[in-house]
Write the structure tokens for this entry.
Amino acid sequence: MENAVAVDRLQFAFTILFHYLFPIGTMGLAPFVAWYTVVAARTGDPRYERAARFWAKLFAVNFALGIVTGIPMEFQFGTNWATFSARTGAIVGQPLAMEGIFAFFLESIFLGVFLYGRRLVPPAVHTASAVLVWAGSWLSGYFIIVTNAWMQHPVGYAVGPGGRLTLSSLAAVLSSPFAWSQFAHAICGAVLAGGFVVAGVGAYYLLARRSEEFGRLFLRSGIVVAFVFSVLAIFPTGDLNGRDVTTYQPLKLAAMEGLFRTERGAPLAIIGMPDVQNETLIDPIFVPGLLSFLAYGNFSAGVDGLSAYPERDRPPISLTYYAYHIMVGLGTIFLAASGVALLLLLLKRLEQSRWLLWILMLLMPFPYIANEAGWVTAEVGRQPWIVYGLIRTSTAASPNVAAGETIFTLLGFAGMYFLLGVLFISVVLREIGIGPESDDVAAVSGEAAV
């Protein structure tokens, strides 16, 4: 049974890591589509309309792949995690259903209006459709994060017959402070990624000396957004999320920081390699007292280490530690790169700084890695609980699904997702290669022919 649970976890981790790439894209690009559309409507400037249509097409590709890769995960609740679904379905089913009924339909309907209704609906409706697509993408993310946040910090429930959990307060689930802080941090991470993608594409156009007018527009917009949300991802949203972890999941905090023993005035590990067997960090660089201050606002406060908890309750320490430090390290790089770029933009020297344009272009994939590392930190650090403090992951899997069956389907997913990944990259690179100017010419020609 333990082998089956391990393979079930591996399959779900693989499918959700791949799937999450696309919601990052939709939540991160939707504000740009809405902003460019609103500016185009207010000013009549055709550049902004072309920019909005260009990014809407890339948004639509992310949206389509998000649907295709999201469906298998919901099936896995029934196939691989039937015990979890039976015990918690009355609670987690509510926000998941609300995501489908409210957010998904809002997003998909108005995306269709935006893409195909430019000449068929009044301009005000077309502009509003872009804003509603933005709202739908973020609302979708909120309902999904509410579900996850309940698993991280369960609220609004009661224990019924046979250990089944029943919903006692939907309002408590939807308004959980843990959910709000987690949602705010996730949104900042997604918009940060969107900012770097927009700036990176703009940098590419300037480096290639093509579509330079749009390159400048994308670079300006992307840099400003990337810098603002790099700051917000650290403070206040990262700080709020960290405080919730400190309050409700102190064991996860200890694993994230590689703190093996309880200390007063606990130091913050900038780098170091956890040696789990000897319960120490190898070659660490510490900032004395900083972990105590970040956790409790006091440089002398005591912070519980991993040794304060039973070994059976500890998460996978090395994976949690490295994932967290990858996220934080990349976040620091994003802040520095976007800050320097913003400074040079204000000094009107950014376009001449080709070295920085290269950095911005090459940075595009890394916000996705940071977002994925944050997800790994949150989910792996929660182990061994699938619902924190209530249901262990080892007891939540389907009892009649063998490890071999899951391995077979995992291999199928790997092959299918490889093809989807190649298709996604090909389509995105093709659209970037066509560019916003060619896209507009083609669109106008097609409409004229009709």
